[in-house]
Amino acid sequence: MATKTFDAVVIGAGPGGYVAAIRLAQLGKKTALVDRESLGGVCLNWGCIPSKAFIAAGNLVDDIRAAAGRGILAGEPTVDVARLRAFKEGVVKKLVGGVGQLEKGNGVEVLKGTAVFVGPNAIEVDAGGEKTLVEAPAFILATGARPIAIPGFEFGKDVWTAREALELSEVPGRLVVIGGGVIGLELGTVYAKLGSKVTIVEALPSLLTGVDPEAVRIVQKGLRQRGVEVFLNAKAKGQRRGGQGLEVTLGIDGKEQVVLADKILVAVGFRPNSEGLGLDKAGVKLDPRGFIQVDDRLQTNVPSIYAIGDVAGAPFLAHKASKEGEIAAEVIAGKKSLRDWVAIPGAIFTDPEVATVGLSEDDARKQGLDPLVGKFAFAALGRAIAIDHTEGFVKVVADRTSKLLLGVTIVGPEASDLIAEATLALEMGAYLEDVALTIHAHPTLPEALMEACKAALGEAIHAINRPEGQRRSRAGAAAEG
Amino acid sequence: MAYQFLLPDIGEGVVEAEILKWFVTPGDAVVEDQPLAEVMTDKATVTIPSPKRGIVTRLLWKEGDVARVHQPLVEMELEGGSSEAGPGPPAAPGAPVAPGPASTQTVRRPPSAGSGSGRKALAAPAVRALARELDVDIHAVRGTGPGGRVAKEDVRAQAATDGAVADGTLEVVPVRGLRRRIAEKMAISKRTAAHFTFVEQADATELIAIKERMARAAPEGVKVTFLPFVLKAAVAALQKYPQLNASFDEARGEIHRKRWYDLGIAAATEQGLTVPVVRRVDHRSIVDLAREIARLGADGRAGRLRPEDVSNSTFTVTSLGALGGMFATPVINYPEVAILGVHRIRPTPVVRDGRVVVREVFYVSLTSDHRVVDGSEAAEFTYEVIRHLEDPSLLHLEGI
Question: Cβ separation of A336 and B147 shorter than 8 Å?
Fold first, then answer.
């Protein structure tokens, strides 16, 4: 068997692994990047990027339909699925190619194959039967996670994971989405826009559990307007092919109900890709759910092995994996890096979008704080009115005494972009006044964050500043609804 | 059951106390009256006993923190039922509290005033990165920015300090307890009072003779020193010049002249300067004074002084004995208005009747607050003290 030796080896070329490899190479380490599939991992190939290509296309369809309201009469749009798929594939190819060039340009050796640990300092890479022993003093595990299957819904031709949904082989007439979390809602929304009749099935009492209920309510309204049916507290019990298509049986309040579908998308969570890697041979410790346990330097209990991204636990976010990849690489290179971020932003590409960072109002109360909350509705913002996207709001949560910003929830147009400023503010340790006193260009959507901070201080310009009691009771009423 | 023990009332007028030392750590089982902590007020060091039996779950202050009276001090888990057994000691007001939810968020909590424990630094990512690079614990850095925000310069300054500590060129001694009290009091005194010092020479020949005679005649175990004579001479002068046995209340614009004579004696202890007070100096005999000075000295060295031993003097005397030097410029024991320093007695050539002779000579230094005491008055007071030290029989004559 051929043997290769490196300073560091990264297993998994997703947004965590490929970034870690580049950073290692930048820091002078002779680095290998191993993946059994395509560079870029789920994110570039079957996740974030293709889904955003579709979502943007879906938004365009929506906008064309709505354009009549502004006097643009384009007629009912039709979607050429094959061309849209080709566009998506072009996007993915371009980005994957870019990653390949970056690895090459930085001197990272890319090894295609399946990696298995044979000891704490060596793996065997199997490329279609051709095996190579790869030795290194340091390894980074970035193998990610995969969708959880539920009993009775074995993945296949009829039951999709997000990956199949993003192949866009067809636009099914009826799509049942099991799981009302981020992926289920994003893909449910886009298929609804492309023409599917979509049904969302969520086992918990609320969609997007953990997100501010007021924001969820607005997302739910958006779904309703697009003809998406939502079942809450509903368990997907089984499915079978019947005369009219797939019959999906739901258990709701102890009663059974059947929903018809042409395709079923299951998006109920992730399990870590920590099996089959020989981690037992290397002695790496896993938690009961199979996630690799790491410290704040991303090191496992085996000093030569690090783990980043989804395989090291929630939140399952590409940018969290990338950041951890940089930190692990720097630690291996002898730098004193540490997971010490204040907050990780989260973006949900529903319609309207939702983005969050730091504490929600509920989080703050659960921690025993009495937060100062400020809210500003896009309906009162010039730019939002001008682009005809007035749904949603910005809500800021701050410490009542010090006015230190603790968290921001945005639901509305371009929320995923708007959250960047809020994240910087949190990371810099900004007070409400810092954001409120910063001049924001007019007319732009980020003015809503400035206004929300001013509202928390009782100084909003483009909203009537109500006494806090009234503001809070309104928030409470919305939370109940 | 969770129980929060509040810092009890420690003494009249005491509003806060510095935590000097914890005798327990979380997880320790304690019984009633077992010492929990040693705290220092502006009056004295006090041991705080546990009011109940239980397990200590959380110490709410770090050593060196200043807690206010009736603020929570420790959290305890009481043994089942014992909390219902009877009321706690009156000095230990406690309140049951519900355990709070555990925090899992990474978002930093704002620094809360007062409690320094567990505080997360307010610092931008670049500053945090610099701290890691320089091996500085950013949460321990005192930020100079708005709201205590840590700047890069603060991190670099801390790194320089840490480096000097590491290579042994700098020793960092936390200013705690007595040292902190001394620092605060001295600063207030110097900032407030208009210090001026008057110095004059005195002849101790007669004083030495009388002291020796009394020392021989004193009861077994009583060591007669010069200090009782100094206290008596000071009282003689204070009775004549009451403006110096006073305190100055600047806020009210009042001078409070005292018609009693409780004299502080500045004394060195292992922890630092303390000023135990000898009460009613005018009513006590030399032997009685010697006894009381000895007791205060012993208690001071043993750290046993009670709040009432060290508070409310009317005037202060400072003497370093063999280290007394020629003279000094003592700092007033604020809010008093004057302090008398007596210095080392040594054979000195002096002119007597036109001839140089060797006499036992020492100097006295009187620092006064010039806002209250005029120069001539300070001088006259000093001469009055010297007159009684050069001829101690006057003390008998005047019945002081």
Answer: no
Q: Tell me: do A388 and A473 sit in the same domain.
A: yes
Q: Searching chain A, which residue's CA lies closest to the CA of residue B104?
A: A367
ipTM: 0.76
Predicted confidence (pLDDT) at residue B92 exceeds the cutoff of 60: no
Residue A174 sits in a domain whose CATH number is 3.50.50.60
Q: What is the pLDDT of residues B280-306, one digit of tens each?
A: 999 999 999 999 999 999 988 887 888
Smallest CA–CA separation between B83 and chain A, in Å?
A: 26
Q: What percent of chain A has pLDDT over 90?
A: 95
Q: How many beta-carbon contacts under 8 Å exist across A and B?
A: 50
Please state, in angstroms and rounded to a whole number, the distance separating the CA atoms of residues A201 and A181.
10
For residue B99, being part of any structural domain is answered with: no
The pLDDT, as a whole number, for residue A469 is: 62
One domain, residues B161 and B252: no
Residue of A nearest to B103 (CA): A367
Domain that holds residue B327: 194-398
Number of domain units in chain A:
3
Is it the case that residue B99 has pLDDT exceeding 70? no
For residue B96, tell me if it sits in a domain: no
User: A374 and A433 in contact (C-beta within 8 Å)?
Assistant: no
Distance from CA of A398 to the nearest CA of B (A): 10
- Interface residue B98 vs chain A (CB under 8 A): no
Least confident of A316-320, B120-124, B247-251: B120-124
CATH number for the domain including A386?
3.30.390.30
**Residue B45 clears pLDDT 50, i.e. is over it:** yes
Which tens digits make up the pLDDT trace of A154-192?
Answer: 999 999 999 999 999 999 999 999 999 999 999 999 999
* CATH assignment of the domain containing B392: 3.30.559.10
Q: What are phi and psi of A386, to 5 degrees?
A: -65, -35
Q: Note the pLDDT of residue A174.
A: 98
Decide which of A300, A332, A364 is a domain's last residue.
A332
H or E stretch covering B214? helix B205-217
What is the rounded radius of gyration, in angstroms, for the C-alpha atoms of chain A? 24
CATH number at residue B27: 2.40.50.100
CA dihedral (A460, A461, A467, A473) in degrees, to 10, reads: -70
Q: Per-residue DSSP letters for B228-263? A: HHHHHHHHHHHHH-GGGSEEEETTTTEEEE-SS--E
Q: Smallest CA–CA separation between B157 and chain A, in Å?
A: 19
Residue B94 has pLDDT above 70, yes or no: no
In a shared domain, residues A375 and A472: yes
Q: Taking 80 as the threshold, does the pLDDT of residue B178 lie above it?
A: no
**Smallest CA–CA separation between B151 and chain A, in Å?**
11
pLDDT tens per residue across span A290-307: 999 999 999 999 999 999
Q: A39 and A13 in contact (C-beta within 8 Å)?
A: yes
Q: Check pLDDT > 60 for residue A276.
A: yes
Tell me how many degrees the CA angle B50-B51-B54 measures, rounded to the nearest 5. Answer: 70
Domain boundary among B82, B97, B114: B82
Asked whether residue B133 is domain-assigned, the answer is yes
Residue B109 has pLDDT above 70, yes or no: no
Identify which of A337, A358, A431 has the shortest CB distance to residue B107.
A358
Identify from A428, A432, A433 which residue to disrupt to test chain B contact, counting B C-beta atoms within 10 A and taking the largest count: A428
A73 & A8 share domain: yes
What is the domain range of residue A425? 346-480
Q: Which of A401, A426, A427 sits opposite B110 (nearest CB)?
A: A401
Nearest chain A alpha carbon to B147: A402
Residues A94 and A165 in one domain: no
> Which chain B positions have a beta carbon within 8 Å of A366's beta carbon?
101
Please choose, from the candidates B317, B322, B343, the residue with its C-alpha nearest in 3D space to the C-alpha of residue B332: B317
Mean pLDDT of chain B: 85
Q: What is the mean pLDDT of residues B57-79?
A: 85
Closest in B105, B107, B124 to A428, CB measured: B124
Q: Could you tell me if residue B173 is inside a domain?
A: no
Distance CA A399, CA B287 (A): 64
Domain stops at, among B23, B56, B82: B82
Q: Answer whether A435's CB lies under 8 Å from A456's CB.
A: no
Asked whether residue B250 carries a pLDDT value surpassing 90, the answer given is no
Number of domains forming the structure of chain B: 3
